Amino acid sequence: MRQGSGILSMRQRRLAWLGFMLAALQAPVSAWLVADESWLFSLCVALMVAIVIIADDAARRRPANATGD
């Protein structure tokens, strides 16, 4: 049984992980440095990128001949 391909290429997947890590690390730093709540934007971006990574991982784990039923 062959595994399916994901929605991201390996290069896009690496860039997504890099973006996730940068946004996740920026959120607490900007929360500490800035008095307003703008750090929540970094947190939301990190969560959206994490969802894309999880969806790609699920697509990669699905067998290649599986249908969307």
TrEMBL record:
Alphabetic keyword roster: Membrane, Transmembrane, Transmembrane helix
Keyword Transmembrane listed: yes
Domain of life: Bacteria
Transmembrane segments: 15-33, 39-55
Protein's recorded name: Uncharacterized protein
Organism: Micromonospora jinlongensis
Taxonomic placement: Bacteria, Bacillati, Actinomycetota, Actinomycetes, Micromonosporales
